[in-house]
Amino acid sequence: MSSVAVLTQESFNEHRNGLLPEQISSVGSSGNDDDDVLPTYKEAFPPLPEKAATPEGRQELDNAWTKIRPLKSSIITQVFHVPLEERKYKDINQFGEGDQAKICVDIMQKTGAHLELSMAKDQGLSIMVSGKLDAVMKARKEIVSRLQTQASATVAIPKEHHRFVIGKNGEKLQELELKTATKIQIPRPEDPSNHIKISGTKEGLEKAKHEILLISAEQDKRAVERVNIDKVYHPFITGAYNKFVAEMMQETGARINVPPPSVLKTEIVITGEKEQVAQAVAMIKKIYEEKKKNATTIAVEVKKSQHKYVIGPRGNTLQEILEKTGVSVEIPPPDSSSETVILRGEPDRLGQALTEVYAKANSYTVSSVLAPSWLHRFIIGKKGQNLAKITQQMPKVHIEFTEGEDKITLEGPTKDVQQVQSQIEAIVMDLVNRMDYTEISVDPKFHRHLIGKGGANINRIKDQYKVSVRIPPDNEKSNLIRIEGDPQGVQEAKKELLELASRMENERTKDMIIEQRFHRAIIGQKGEKIKEVRDKFPEVIINFPDPAQKSDIVQLRGPRTEVEKCSKFMQKMVAEMVENSYSVSVPIFKQFHKNIIGKGGANIKKIREETNTKIDLPAENSNSEMIVITGKKANCEAARNRILAIQKELVSWCSVSIPSKLHNSLIGSKGRFVRSIMEECGGVHIHFPTEGSGIDTVTIRGPVEDVEKAKRQLLSVAEEKVRTLRVFFFYCFFSASTAETTAQENGETNGEVKDAADPATPRKCDVIVLSGRKERCEAAVEALKALVPVTIEVEVPFELHRYIIGQKGSGIRKMMDEYEVNIQVPAPELHSDIIAITGLACHLDRAKEGLLERVKELQAEQEDRALRSFKLTITVDPKYHPKIIGRKGAIITQIRNEHDVNIQFPEKNDENQDQITITGYEQKAIAARNAIQAIVDDLEEMISEDITLDSRVHARIIGARGKGIRKIMDEFKVDLKFPQNGAADPNLVTVMGRPEDVDEAIDHLLNLEEEYLADVVENESKQAYMKPRATASSVSAGEEQRSSSKGFVVREAPWTTSTEKAPDMSSSEDFPSFGASVTPKTSPWGPKRF
Predict the structure, then answer these.
(1) Could you read off the pLDDT of 994-1005 as tens digits, one per residue?
(2) N or C end of the chain: which has fewer CB within 10 A?
(3) What percentage of the chain reaches a pLDDT higher than 70?
(4) Cβ count within 10 A of residue 873
(5) Which run of H or E residues covers position 819?
(6) CA end-to-end span of the chain
(7) Strands (DSSP E) along 493-536, which ranges?
(8) Do residues 503 and 563 touch, judged by C-beta distance below 8 A?
(9) Residue 226: CB partners within 8 Å, gap ≥ 6?
(10) Which SS3 state, helix, strand or coil, does residue 381 take?
(11) pTM for this predicted structure
């Protein structure tokens, strides 16, 4: 038995693709003998062509290898020549430099092609361009336009041929410009000219002109024919499902455009080659003449409501009748009240068509089932589950529930409608037997309390008694609450709701005034303390204001007696907090804090326990000396005395008498001066009496040496202040005799000053003596008087003082700097309206005017603030809130900006979820409310309809990142809701919007479903023929099959000859390495070629 070569079937199939048809047929031919089936080695592996010279320069071998397409490089090279006379830049001395070189670099950067320039003997320019094909063509166009002089020419072709030169989206024109390296300008459609302008090189002009004339000549062969055919005969020309017109187009090669039934045009347009158009026109006219001669009509009356059944979805039923009978059925338009249906066709076919029309019209029926309207939602079931079971069984039946009507309308095939009707009647009968309803009257103001926070109360009643409770929304202003469900549960729920309502009528709401600083303490950490209060008074609802509101009002609501008890209890809590919140600060020298604390905190711990107070010391790295004591007043005073006693044992103190009028100047701006003395003297404490008390005593405490040092410094500074701050009286002495007389009158003799005779006479130290000429002395006196500060008082309303001072005193500092005066605002506890302005007389009037002007501005701001704080609320069902807010807040932001108001929606845990608050000017707030109400009115007019769309097309309708669904929603102005994963009915889609928009959107969605579903079905059918993904079992089975198969075998292989054996893999002769020299030998494999 001979040896055979074994290949896999996949390798053989791949190899067969390169064989000639006759070779494939010979390989694939079957016979009884196995050797005849096997291909020979040369057939399976044809030899490579031998290198031999032929007259044509190459050898044509008739074998499979000649059929292999050679690989082409993606990089091409072209050379362009620019004659000397057409060169733009002819300066030979600047070749490779200047503008020409810059242009070449720019072209390479733009196109990505590589350019090389060279100069020919005739001074012409040769440009070699390398790169990808499109890059080379672009570079060529740039070279021609920028390095070669341009010429222009015009070519005239018929105006109607221009669009063929341009091509679709201008692609043909761009291709032509690249191909010819020219610029082609085509006149605009409104321009009557038929001349096309071409600019470029002479060679390019000729090529472009030739190409344009070729396009025009080609179009001259084509024709357009318009044939007027009565609209009623169009169906006979198109045929059922457009079969006739498609056959005519295929037969003639012409394009035939028949206007659709919805377009009221009689003109049929045929385009194509003249002969093709003439043939198509003849065929159309032949059909028309034949039908006009032979066709007759009959008119029948069909109910308007049944017309849609005759038409069918997308007119399919009409096409079906036309296909079966050859009769055209004409239906009056939907906006017509006519019920006449016209049948047109051959007389012997009209009877059959009429039977089909009546059959289709009566194939659907409309029926109704009596059912109380309150039972409708129980029939539908939760999320439409009950109804979905029926519709899944009978998908062709349309079930319609009308709100407020005691009936259900059914529409669909007669048999299906009867089955659905019997099912729904059974459901209605069952519900009527086991369910009941009742209505109770409750004041609408108690409705939200019956519902409870987050619906807690009403949900508990529903779950407990297995009933449904409908509480009307606030905008209905109805007091009827409807309870539906099991008869016993209805009665029990009614009883509990009435009890709750009765209890609410006895409820009382009380507002307590509690300072906001105590709110956190009453609530406690994590609400522990307020929980204790609520547990003690479970029937009382306690509401604290939002911290941001800075309100002191705490609201209590509940039964009258319980509210009173709770109120007294909380007042007692607040009183204790007030009593225990007394605080006093004790200044203690920083170096003595450790003595106050004691060893291991013994002293401070003992004081805290014995006085029952809280004592806080500043941190070690703090500069503060204040120790804060908190608790009851008496206890705080006791603790304070004990701490001061400890300090008293450790420090020395003394008192100094300094006139009180000097205290402010000694303290300095923001206490800087006195602080510098205290720091310099070892941290002593200097205490000045309260401003305005009139006390002159200043107390100094601290270590002995530091106290004495501070006392000396303080007295020294005080003396300097006394000398510089005296009130001066000016006396002028104009001559020596006058001075002597004045001295005598004041009791001055021999250089000594005696006691003045007049007690009002100023002391010598208060006198400034001026000597000089009289007029100059008088001028100096006036100048000195002008430097004496003057104080005036301005009346400003007390409530404006804090605005005049400004944030951290910025407002008053700005005025003092601007007017060069000192402005003194009275302390808040004085409640005074008088502001004092001190400064030079020349500055006071301007400062007063500025202050009064500021007062006017503040009063105007107050009035504007009051006008802007107008507030109103609007009640809107929470389900409409997202629509009012809009996508990313677009709608509500527009309303806010347009009306300059603030619109606040309720928080998630707010009881009044339906209240929207608007703040701003009254007129603008009302306008904003009207704008919101208009949106709500539009939303309330909207309806919601469920349709069934195959879940396999949902993803395509939604589109990438929701683009498709957003386009549909924007186009039809509706909202679409697709089912989530795991929904009971994955095909159920909800459409919400205005009735007319919803209908249009549903039609569009159904059309999309039909279109996409065809693709889905086609893909699924393709998947059935595709090779399934390999599994473990299939892989093992495949291996087993391959092991048992012989594989691919060939006859007459070289190694099967008697003189040859299979090549030796280890032999360097059979498998030489690169560079190794071997002795050639004859082999059945053919001559070796290296």
Answers:
(1) 888 888 888 888
(2) N
(3) 81
(4) 13
(5) helix 810-819
(6) 35
(7) 507-513
(8) no
(9) 267, 268, 269, 270
(10) coil
(11) 0.31
